[in-house]
Amino acid sequence: MRDLLGYGEDEATMVAVFLHDQRQSGRVAGRLDRELGGALAAVPWNTSQPQLAAFIALKVGGAVFMELLIAVLVAAGIFNTLFVSVMERLREFGIMLAIGWSPGRLFRLVMMESVWLAALGLVGAFLLTLGPYLYLSSTGLDLTAVYGGTVEVAGVGLDPVLKIGIFPRNAVMIALFAVVATLASGIYPAWRAGRVEPVETIRVV
Amino acid sequence: MAGDPIISLTDVTRVYRQGSVDIHALRGLTLEIEPGEFTAVCGPSGSGKTTTLNLIGALDSVTSGSIALEGRELGNLNKKELSALRRDRIGFVFQAYNLMPVLTAYENAEMVLWVQGVDAATRRERVMDLLDQVGLKGLEDRRPSELSGGQQQRVAIARAIASNPAVVLADEPTANVDSETAETLLGLMETLNRDQGVTFLFSTHDPQVMERARRVVRLVDGGVASDERR
């Protein structure tokens, strides 16, 4: 390997292979290990840098918890929006039922509103986040002033310019969650709309 | 089946439970309405006028007894069938108009036809004709908040007759308008009754309505106290 890379006898004890996607490191290391035979060992980054891996795992765990918390809050917000919009229109739903709308039709109407809310929310969120995302993924956030020049975790120097990136699969998952949460949040308000008693809501006396 | 009543109430009672007290809104009411009648149901507050209209309109259900509309027992119909009955055979005119505030006069009148699945061209033709008949030509694009009480009630009448219903149930239709407007609305409903054969059943306190009605049914304590045909 030293010969191949042009290093002297004592010049390199470890060679790092950079990948575009760190998630492939286990697979690539395994394949390299098989190709190299028993003379050299190829290990993924999280085996060679266990402290860094532990630090990142801790951060990821915290981020997942925060994401779940945000997801619950988002779902509650969507539910609240739909539920309030239904409760504010009970009289209108009563009129609609009185003139011949069926409960099923009203259910579908409110669910359709949920679909529109989800669609508009997705488009709005995309447009709203596109600019900041492009900036943060290309230029990034320079944290040099915060960290005082260099950032090091477990002996590994990190770029003080923080850049973000979203894996396409994660973006799709987030979009799917938003749609599913919106539709699920719409079910109870939609059912409630269909259960309105016209006599009680339109007060004809 | 000429001569058969369009509406038939047989020994109808309606009891509401209010806390631990039973309120008897109707006590064995029996009444028949013939096709094409222009009938006013009057009586003091609490006599059961609105309850009667709500029950005939399938907005409420009887405690005992039976109601038939065009020979169909309402008690034998499920929710979906009752919705279809209200959509296709019954028109409602409410005291408080009950128009959809976000829709224009045209859209309010069109709504029933839209629910019926009538195509857009037919809807447009029918609604424009109706708004013309009720004297609202040129005001199609106004929302209820931009119309006077009388104009809103005209929209409600247009909506009520849009689907060519067998019967129009009007609960205190002139209660929220001045006497001149009430006179105009009554004239309009009389014309629709006479020219199109629509059966009208009103609940009312208004002497003007009672005067114009060709039949006046007086309710007292949930039962018929008098039934006068003119």
What does this protein look like?
The complex is a heterodimer of chains A (205) and B (230). With 205 residues, chain A is mostly helical. Chain A has two domains: 1-48, no CATH class; 50-202, no CATH class. Chain A has helices at residues 2-5, 25-36, 45-48, 50-87, 90-98, 103-138, 144-147, 168-194, 198-202; strands at residues 141-142, 151-153, 156-158, 161-162. In chain A, strand 2 (151-153) and strand 3 (156-158) form a beta hairpin. In chain A, helix 4 runs parallel beside helix 8 and helix 6 runs antiparallel to helix 8. The longest helix of chain A is centred in the middle third of the chain and has 38 residues, at 50-87. The N and C termini of chain A lie far apart (93 Å). Chain B is α/β, with parallel strands linked by helices and 230 residues long. Chain B has helices spanning 49-56, 79-89, 105-116, 120-133, 149-161, 179-196, 207-212; strands spanning 7-18, 21-33, 38-42, 64-69, 72-73, 90-93, 167-171, 199-204, 215-220, 223-229. The mean pLDDT of chain B is 92. The interface between A and B is medium-sized, with 19 and 29 residues.
In short:
The complex is a heterodimer of chains A (205) and B (230). With 205 residues, chain A is mainly α.
Write the layout of secondary structure elements.
The complex is a heterodimer of chains A (205) and B (230).
Chain A: H1 2-5, H2 25-36, H3 45-48, H4 50-87, H5 90-98, H6 103-138, E1 141-142, H7 144-147, E2 151-153, E3 156-158, E4 161-162, H8 168-194, H9 198-202
Antiparallel strand pairs in A: 1-4, 2-3
Helix pairs in contact in A: 4-8, 6-8
Chain B: E1 7-18, E2 21-33, E3 38-42, H1 49-56, E4 64-69, E5 72-73, H2 79-89, E6 90-93, H3 105-116, H4 120-133, H5 149-161, E7 167-171, H6 179-196, E8 199-204, H7 207-212, E9 215-220, E10 223-229
Helix pairs in contact in B: 3-4, 3-5, 4-5, 5-6
Task: Give the tags.
heterodimer; A: mainly alpha; two-stranded antiparallel ribbon; B: 230 residues; 4-stranded antiparallel beta sheet; 7 helices
